[in-house]
Amino acid sequence: MDPLDIVSNLHNIKPVYQPVVSAITHDVTGYEVLGRYYTGKEWISLGPFFHDDDVPEEFKVEVDQHLLEIALTDMVASNQETYLFINRNAKQLMVNDGQDLLDTLIRFEQKGVSMGRIILEVTEHDFDEAFDSLHHLLLYYKTYGIQIAVDNVGAKSSNIDRIRQLKPHILKIDTKLIRRHNEDGFQDIMYSLSMLARRIGAALLFENIEDSYQLYVAWKHGGRFYQGYYLAQPAFKGTPQSPLQVDVAERVEGYVRREKVLVEKRLRFILSWEDKLKKLLPQWQGPKKVDAFIHAVTRYFNEESFRMYICNSDGQQISSNFRKRKDEWVLEENKRGSNWSFRPYFLENMMHMKTWKKAMLSDVYSDIDTRETIRTFSYPLSDQHFLFIDIRYAFLYENECLLI
Ligand code: CA
């Protein structure tokens, strides 16, 4: 399509709306505005027009302003208190210092569309150029109550610091990330993104959700908003009241049920391990006979564990390492005296065990030595001595509840 044809035929351009679903109400909470162009035969997406670097920014601004006018007029007419997500790239916003957009929004604010209902989506890869000017402009928009979303987060992890500076209200995550990375890679990206979101107080929005599994992943990773063909296709104005293709509430009920069963199973593992150790506790004869005690424990955790040791309350290892090699438990005496207090949560967890007199199971993490995904089960033998049982990957893998 010739960009000139598009910009000189604005009457052939109309917005479509893609519903954004709230994880709290399980219902549509807003719409993202996308552009469609009528060729005389069919309606086509304006995506390629907007993403084409050769199209002059002034053209894009004109088309976007036209779409926005219609969308805001629709909003006034519909009387719904929904959010409107609009897309702008950095260069477009820089045209005329972003004043066109603001003027339009101010005009419609007088007709009843509050600025707080507008969510401006900027793309992460826009941050590469002129970040400071963009940052200033977005700060300025924010003072009007306009919300900022960063589109396509996670595509480039190098922008974490800039996102932090920008403090957007929403981070939009492309669910295609799940498909592009393996399970571990995706988990790691999600871990840092949700940490970032928590730190800056941003909500996560998962877009391009195409099936039930992806909706589950979005729910599981703390998605506050969902968007994608699985839930609803973009549609022209005048769509029925409930345009959702799936019953989100019912789906989430299913996820909750599944998750509860898994957590319960995991807790049962912890209880049964704790039980085994309680029965072995009479054999604990203090730090002098520490290796003998572990030796007694090994055969009760033969399936689960590949490594065990005991530390005192300062984080110092007072036993040998018991290490399973092939089918034999081997003693590594040289590990005695190692200090583990520097490890994240080590002291915190020890104080917990001491205070509550309860066993603990760590998160899933990568062992420094073996690089394998493991978890550590720990148990207070006394106020001063703590047993650590590293659970091997194969055992976690066989029991899904231990992997989440
Ligand atoms: Ca977008």
Explain what you see:
- This protein is an alpha/beta fold and 404 residues long.
- The chain has two domains: 3-230, TIM Barrel (Alpha-Beta Barrel), CATH 3.20.20; 259-402, PAS domain (Beta-Lactamase, 2-Layer Sandwich), CATH 3.30.450.20.
- 39% of the residues lie in helices and 23% in strands.
- The protein is built from 14 helices and 16 strands.
- It has helices at 3-7, 47-51, 57-78, 90-94, 99-109, 131-143, 160-166, 176-180, 183-200, 212-220, 248-280, 290-298, 346-356, 393-398; strands at 13-22, 28-38, 43-45, 83-87, 118-123, 147-153, 170-174, 203-207, 223-226, 305-312, 321-325, 328-332, 360-361, 365-366, 373-380, 385-391.
- The strands form two sheets. An eight-stranded mixed barrel has the order 1-2-4-5-6-7-8-9, surrounded by four helices. Strands 10, 11, 12, 13, 14, 15 and 16 form a seven-stranded antiparallel β-sheet that branches.
- A hairpin with a 4-residue loop joins β15 and β16.
- α3 (57-78) packs parallel to α5.
- The longest helix is centred in the middle third of the chain and has 33 residues, at 248-280.
- The radius of gyration is 28 Å and the shape is elongated.
- It starts with a helix and ends in a 6-residue tail after the last helix.
- The mean pLDDT is 93.
- Calcium ion binds next to loops.
Structural class: alpha/beta
Q: Indicate the CATH architecture of the largest domain.
A: Alpha-Beta Barrel
Query: What CATH first level of the largest domain would be assigned?
Result: Alpha Beta
CATH H-level superfamily of the largest domain: EAL domain
So what's the overall shape? elongated
What is the averaged pLDDT score? Answer: 93
Enumerate the distinct ligands.
calcium ion
Radius of gyration computed on alpha carbons: 28 Å
Outline the biggest β-sheet.
8 strands, mixed, barrel
Unreliable stretches (pLDDT < 50, length at least 5) are: none
What percent strand?
A: 15-25%
Count of domains: 2
Query: What is the spatial order of strands in the main beta sheet?
Result: 1-2-4-5-6-7-8-9
Q: Give the SSE string.
A: HEEEHHEHHEHEHEHHEHEHHEEEHEEEEH
| CATH topology heading of the largest domain | TIM Barrel
Q: What is the percent of helical residues? A: 25-40%
Q: How many individual β-strands?
A: 16
Oligomer: single chain
